[in-house]
Amino acid sequence: MNMVAEMLLTEPAPMAIWATLMLLTFPALLLLGSPEAMRRPRHAAQEFVAALRGNGAAVRRQAEEAAQTARFADEVRVAAERAEAHAQRWQEAWERSEGELNDAYTAWLEADARLRTATSAAAWGTPWSVRTCDEYAARQRYLHREVTAAAGRGELPAAAVADAVAERAGWDARLHPVEQQLVITRASAAWLRQRYEQAVAAERAAWHDADSARRASSSLRREAALAASLVVPAPQGRATARPHRHTVAVPAM
Description:
Layout: H1 3-10, H2 12-32, H3 35-39, H4 41-122, H5 133-152, H6 159-166, H7 177-229, E1 231-233, E2 239-241
Antiparallel strand pairs: 1-2
C-alpha cells in the first residue's frame, strides 16, 4: 500500500477534498467530452443546469407519490382493522341471537307439552261445585295467581297480568280452575310460539349482517395487503412507491 492510498484510507479530510474536486470538475469533463459543448459552452451549461433541475423535480415528484402511496396504504390498513372489529361484533351478536333462538324453541316445546297435558285433563270435564260468592272469589284469586306466576316465568307477556285482573282479552274468572289452567296454557303456548318466530327472524337478520360484515372485512384485508405491497422502504427510512401503481378501491361499509 503506497503512502497516498494509506493517507486516503486513514484521514477523512483528504478524501472529502478529492470528492469535492471531482464533483466540481465533472461539468468541465462533460464539456470537454462533447464537441458541440466546446463550440457552445454557455448553451451546454444551461442545458446541464436544466437537466439538474429536471432531475430534482422528478425526485420531488417521486417522493410526493411515495408519500401519498404510504398514506393510502395506512388508511386502508386502519379501515381494515376497523372492519375486522366491526365484523367481530356482528359475529358475537349473531351468536347471542342463535342462543336466544334455541332457548325460545325449547320454551315453546315445553309449553306445547303442557298444553297437551292440560287438554287431556280438561277432556274429563270439571267437577261440580256450588257457585257461591266465595267460590267465584277463589276462582278469581286462582286466575290472578296463575297468570302472574306464568308471566314471572316468561311464559306470558307482562300485559297478560293486567288483562287477567280486568278480565279482558279472553280471561274469565268465572271458569273452573281446570278450565282456567287450559286457557292459561293455551295462551302461554301461543305467546311462546310467537317469541320463537320472532327469534327466528332476528337470527336470520343477525346472520345476514354478520355475513356482510365478514365479506367487507375480507375485502378490506385484501385491499390493505395490496396497498402495502405498493410501498417500498427507502434506504433513509422514507417510503417509495413501486412503478406502475394501480388504484385500490376501498369498498363502502
